[in-house]
């Protein structure tokens, strides 16, 4: 912001749950987000199941920085900055592939799939050999920090970032429901990738805690009988929770024990047996004793999850699916959505096929929920660009009384973090509080690195 | 000379080759062609087996000298 006092006011408003509407479409804010959020946080890049074999790679971005996420010949995963050391051409231009070596299309510099430079044409004639350009030990610039949890590959552009596990904090309690239903974990299909004219924060907030929109925005989904759950009286019985770097929503399930409730959302016994072995007593108690089933969730800054159980056939039987989605910022008013289908690797093939169908009906570029949501987000973003939006503070205080006391007491249950039953914007505030903490803290500019000069 | 008429195409974003088994009168070879660069090589079974002994470093050295032989042709060995 031109005037630091403006930023101070914006952040103070956000922290009391009154959101200056322009933050959803503002060049200055976006520039700060790029530096202070996306150049600092752990950002999701890929899942290990997307690169199972040596040489498998996918190309992914953290804002404008393109990375080759690759498994080398020895099985190690790397995230290599996709820029040739010579003239900066993107070394990999395909979205995915398999290669032992990458060759830059511009001058033919080639790199092994662990990033090491192995050849530059006419090394002796053009550079005088190693005397002019020391070829050994040069490699594509690695992401400053790289780590995984349950096969989810995250990178941070900050070499001093705290360990990923510390960053995620207690959110891993919930991450396991989506990504560890058996010892083998998940496998992904996709992503589908498309662009929407909406600010990236809206999706992250919506998935983090907006149970309130479900009965209204998604009325048509209930009307056509695709989904049996999102009726208003059902949704407000669920709870929202925030733990560590993320939070999410749940549904309250009908009476029953753990196995009966997992059956209720459509899991077959062969999968339930593995969940029971894989999850901790507290993770089992959230479903079995407290009666809550995870649904949507977000990890700061821009990774979301969804777990729903629509009807997939003519009968009233439901079947669950899991989706991972990333709100990849393109600009203050544009977001690239990446949407993956996720399923337990050990699930029966028949379950995988039906679960994929359930996912496609609800989410992905043709999904019904997706269509409903994006219409709102585009409208919000476009209106946030104007002059009047600079005068309006959006009320995001649902669940808080005037004295900042919560409308309902925190839920006492087995889950990690803090949870409240019913409608509230606790999680949206928690997410934006993290956003504010990042925005007010400048990032140290790292020193530049050069290659081959021998110094 | 009989040639198996069904070549195998192997490609990624960096290269594309056509692989054909070529049956000569006294034995087969594997022909590898790069249509884009117009180069080709015909390898006998022993040369192919030798490939299986190589570490990734051998291929890195070959790829690091594009369109050239790793070892200069002729009698002398000049790595």
Automatic annotation (TrEMBL), chain A:
Q: Which GO terms describe its molecular function?
A: 2 iron, 2 sulfur cluster binding; dioxygenase activity; iron ion binding; monooxygenase activity; oxidoreductase activity, acting on paired donors, with incorporation or reduction of molecular oxygen
**Stored CDD domains:** RHO_alpha_C_NDO-like, Rieske_RO_Alpha_NDO
What Pfam families has UniProt attached to this entry?
Rieske, Ring_hydroxyl_A
**Highest taxon in the source lineage:** Bacteria
- Domain Rieske stretches: 42-155
The protein's UniProt keywords, in alphabetical order, are: 2Fe-2S, Aromatic hydrocarbons catabolism, Dioxygenase, Iron, Iron-sulfur, Metal-binding, NAD, Oxidoreductase
Similarity field: Belongs to the bacterial ring-hydroxylating dioxygenase alpha subunit family.
* Annotated PANTHER family: 3-PHENYLPROPIONATE_CINNAMIC ACID DIOXYGENASE SUBUNIT ALPHA (PTHR43756:SF1), CHOLINE MONOOXYGENASE, CHLOROPLASTIC (PTHR43756)
Q: What is this protein called?
A: Phthalate 3,4-dioxygenase, alpha subunit
Query: Origin organism of this chain?
Result: Pseudonocardia thermophila
Automatic annotation (TrEMBL), chain B:
**Protein name, as recorded:** Dihydrodiol dehydrogenase
Please tell me the species this chain comes from. Pseudonocardia thermophila
């Amino acid at each position: 912001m031109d005037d630091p006092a403006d930023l101070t006011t914006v952040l103070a408003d956000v922290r009391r749950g009154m959101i200056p509407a322009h933050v959803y479409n503002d060049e200055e804010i976006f520039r700060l987000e790029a530096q202070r959020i996306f150049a600092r946080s752990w950002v999701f890049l890929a899942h290990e199941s997307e690169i199972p074999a040596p040489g498998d790679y996918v190309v992914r971005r953290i804002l404008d920085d393109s990375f080759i996420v690759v498994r080398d010949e020895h099985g190690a995963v790397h995230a290599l900055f996709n820029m040739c050391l010579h003239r900066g051409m993107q070394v990999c231009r395909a979205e995915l592939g398999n290669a032992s070596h990458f060759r830059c299309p511009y001058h033919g510099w080639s790199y092994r799939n662990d990033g090491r430079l192995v050849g530059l044409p006419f090394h002796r004639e053009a550079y005088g050999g190693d005397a002019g350009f020391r070829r050994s030990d040069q490699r594509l610039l690695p992401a400053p920090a790289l780590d995984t949890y349950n096969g989810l590959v995250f990178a941070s552009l900050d070499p001093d970032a705290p360990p990923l596990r510390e960053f995620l904090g207690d959110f891993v309690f919930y991450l396991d429901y989506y990504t560890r239903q058996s010892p083998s974990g998940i496998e992904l299909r996709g992503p589908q990738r498309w662009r929407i004219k909406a600010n990236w924060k809206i999706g992250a907030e919506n998935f983090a805690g907006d149970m309130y929109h479900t009965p209204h925005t998604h009325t048509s989904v209930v009307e056509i009988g695709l989904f049996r759950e999102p009726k208003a009286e059902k949704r407000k019985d669920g709870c929202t929770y925030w733990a560590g770097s993320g939070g999410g929503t749940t549904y309250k399930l009908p009476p029953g024990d753990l196995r009966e409730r997992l059956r209720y959302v459509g899991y077959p016994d062969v999968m339930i047996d593995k969940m029971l072995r894989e999850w901790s007593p507290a993770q089992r108690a959230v479903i079995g004793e407290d009666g809550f089933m995870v649904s949507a969730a977000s990890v700061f800054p821009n990774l979301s999850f969804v777990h729903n159980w629509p009807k997939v056939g003519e009968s009233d039987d439901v079947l669950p699916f899991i989706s991972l989605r990333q709100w990849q910022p393109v600009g203050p008013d544009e977001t690239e959505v990446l949407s993956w289908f996720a399923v337990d690797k050990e699930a029966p093939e028949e379950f995988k096929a039906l679960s994929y169908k359930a996912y496609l009906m609800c989410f992905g570029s043709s999904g019904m929920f997706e269509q409903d949501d994006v219409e709102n987000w585009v409208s919000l973003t476009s209106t946030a660009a104007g002059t009047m939006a600079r005068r309006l503070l959006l009320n995001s205080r649902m669940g808080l009384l005037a004295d900042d006391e919560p409308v309902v007491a925190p839920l006492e249950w087995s889950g990690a973090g803090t949870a409240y039953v019913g409608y509230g914007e606790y999680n949206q505030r928690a997410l934006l509080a993290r956003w504010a903490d990042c925005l007010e803290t400048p990032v140290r500019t790292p020193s530049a690195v050069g290659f081959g000069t021998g110094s | 000379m009989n040639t198996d008429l069904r070549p195998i195409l192997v490609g990624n974003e960096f290269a594309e080759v056509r692989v054909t088994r070529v049956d000569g009168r006294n034995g087969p070879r594997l022909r590898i062609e790069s249509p884009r660069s117009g180069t080709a090589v015909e390898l006998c079974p022993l040369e192919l087996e030798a490939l299986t002994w190589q570490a990734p470093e051998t291929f890195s050295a070959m790829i690091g000298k594009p369109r050239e032989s790793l070892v200069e042709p002729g009698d002398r060995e000049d790595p």
